[in-house]
Specification:
alpha/beta, seven-stranded parallel beta sheet, 12 helices, 10% strand, globular, binds zinc ion
Length: 335
């Protein structure tokens, strides 16, 4: 049993458990075990044979049992049961996602805003995973609590980016921003600044419970801005703790597809936003996707294998996901 396949099963279990408020702790335990597996990639078959699955950090008897079943049969009856209970059974048309072909992450944070690592540490972490590029997308100024970047600090950051790029050979650092989508759909930085950046992730962070028609107009305006490349965590939800924005998804996704704006599958286990259902709708409407960790520390890059199941379940082919494209094929990069 490939550790990354097991990561996705444990992670999906964590996701499905999160839909039940009573299961939040168990959900977190499954997500945490998935994260450990994603980071350490242990030899599961050998551990199973020696009856040592519980030696993996965060794997107690319950999770070990799920893993054992998975290793023995290639399937998890527990996952199948949860899928059935939550009305999300397996489908015939799942896609195949080869994470070995993952080229780079488009959404990450550094200690310039609320990240917990320096740009150099993040770059080294990405390089260690074989990434060819990393989008450095710290927060925009409105988010004061996280020390969001205004144009002046962005300029200063771009100088550091040049330095780090020299130090970490073979990794392209994309100068970007996670720009806040304001209540009226305007963005939290002027177009003159955004158009200079390689990658603009526009995300809703506050006032997520706006009335649906206002939220629809807000999102439509954001996806219509020609400088926006990706909509970050499109609803802002946190399953089990915060309901996300509700809007006319069909209209917004259709407009995103028309404008070539990608929708993000944010692989942070606390977000997992989109949902498989919304991802499938977006796929049918012609959208492209970004499969990002939204990492705030190098270890969080391992969220990508934890979120990949969602793209697979939604049937999204790899050629519709930006992160599988080589750097030269990322057309949004400022020339
Ligand atoms: Zn965000
Ligand atoms: Zn972010």
């Amino acid at each position: 049993m490939d550790a990354i396949a097991a990561v996705q099963v444990l992670s999906e279990i964590g996701y499905l458990l999160r839909q039940n408020p009573k299961e939040v702790y168990r959900a977190r335990a499954f997500s945490a075990a998935a994260w450990t597996l994603a980071l350490e990639r242990p030899n599961l078959d050998a551990l199973f044979k020696d009856n040592k699955l519980t030696s993996i950090d965060g794997v107690g008897e319950g999770i070990a049992k799920v893993l054992a079943g998975l290793i023995e049969s290639g399937q998890s009856t527990y996952l199948e049961r949860l899928r059935a209970e939550t009305g999300q059974p397996a489908r015939e048309d799942e896609s195949v996602i080869d994470l070995g072909a993952y080229q780079g992450d488009l959404h990450s944070h550094t200690d310039w805003s609320d990240g917990r690592a320096t740009m150099l540490e993040m770059a080294r972490g990405a390089k260690a995973l074989g990434y060819k590029y990393l989008g450095v997308t710290d927060h925009s100024p409105r988010i004061k609590v996280v020390n969001g970047l205004d144009s002046e600090r962005l300029l200063a950051q771009s100088r550091e980016r040049e330095q780090v790029e020299k130090e970490v050979e073979g990794l392209a650092l994309l100068q970007g921003i996670e720009v806040d989508i304001l209540e009226d759909g305007a963005l939290d930085l002027p177009d003159a600044v955004l158009e200079l950046l390689d990658v603009v992730v526009a995300s809703p962070h506050v006032k997520l419970r706006q009335e649906s028609s206002a939220m629809t107009e807000r999102m439509l305006r954001a996806v219509s801005n020609p400088n926006v490349d990706v909509i970050g965590h499109p609803t802002g939800r946190r399953p089990g703790s915060r309901e996300g924005a509700s809007y006319d998804f069909e209209r917004v996704f259709r407009e995103a597809a028309r404008n070539g704006v990608a929708l993000e599958i944010d692989c942070d286990p606390a977000r997992m936003d989109l949902s498989p259902e919304h991802a499938r709708l977006a796929l049918e409407l012609g959208c492209t996707f970004a499969l990002d960790a939204d990492a705030h520390a190098p270890a969080e890059f391992a969220y990508v294998p934890m979120g990949a199941w969602m793209a697979r379940r939604a049937g999204i082919p790899m050629d519709r996901i930006l992160n599988f494209k080589p750097l030269e094929a990322l057309t949004m990069i400022a020339k």
